[in-house]
Amino acid sequence: MIKKIALFFIIFCIIFINNSYSSAKYEIIKKLEIIDNISFKFTQKISKKTEQGNCIIKYPKLIYCLYNNNKIMISNGKFLTIKHKTKKQSYVYPLNKTPLFKILDKNNLIYEIKNSKINTNNKESFEFLIKNKNNKIKILFDKKTFNLKGWITEDIYQNKINFKIFNLQINKKVDKNKFKLPELD
Question: Does residue 185 form part of some domain?
Answer without folding.
Answer: no
